[in-house]
Amino acid sequence: MANPNLLGISTVTGSSTAVSLATTGYYTVLSNAASSGRAYKVISLMASHASSDTANVSVNVRLNAAAAGAGSSTVIIKDVTVSSGAAQVIIDKNNPLYIVENKSLVASASSLNAVDVTVTYEELY
Questions:
Q1: pLDDT above 90 covers what percent of the chain?
Q2: Contact status, residue 81 vs residue 54, Cβ threshold 8 Å
Q3: CA distance 59 to 69
Q4: 8 A C-beta contact, residue 108 and residue 12
Q5: pLDDT tens for residues 112-122?
Q6: With CB atoms 3.0 to 4.6 Å apart as the test, which of 22, 40, 78, 91 could cross-link to 45 if both were Cys?
Q7: What is the sign of the dihedral through the CA atoms of 28, 36, 103 and 68?
Q8: pLDDT value for 111
Q9: Phi and psi dihedrals of 28, rounded to 5?
Q10: Are strands 86-91 and 39-49 parallel, antiparallel or unpaired?
């Protein structure tokens, strides 16, 4: 099935989820399966850091078939610094991002100390 026609959607469901970036490499923050018939509108993505060091955070959109962060990835932001005890807004409602079928939003951090990524999105179908 193709991505849904946004003019023909009948359901919009809001949701939030958080992922802790505990080891090196990319973590899947939000994934849309192939042939799901859905699109996800990301209206907020925030990285927060509670440790005493600083962290660099990267966020990509990738094909689901590729290894996390590898293959066909599109960089959304790379190595943005998140200071100790701070949060960094990466995506906001003024600049939303659509995760279409067979794509995922992935994130990584340079510090393994308490970096959390929170995404708020709408599921459209």
A1: 75
A2: yes
A3: 9
A4: no
A5: 777 999 999 99
A6: 91
A7: positive
A8: 80
A9: -80, 125
A10: antiparallel
Cα distances (angstroms) measured from residue 18 to each of 6, 28, 29, 96, 107: 26, 10, 7, 18, 11
Cβ(47)–Cβ(119) below 8 Å: no
Rounded Cα distance between 71 and 116, Å, is 24
Q: Of the candidates 42, 45, 37, which has an alpha carbon nearest to the alpha carbon of residue 6?
A: 37
Amino acid at 32: N
d(CA 76, CA 96): 12
Which class for 117: exposed (0-12), middle (13-18), buried (19 or more C-beta within 10 A)? Answer: buried
What ranges make up the beta strands (E) of the chain? 12-20, 27-32, 39-49, 55-63, 73-82, 86-91, 97-99, 103-109, 115-124
Residue for token pair 């939030």? 16
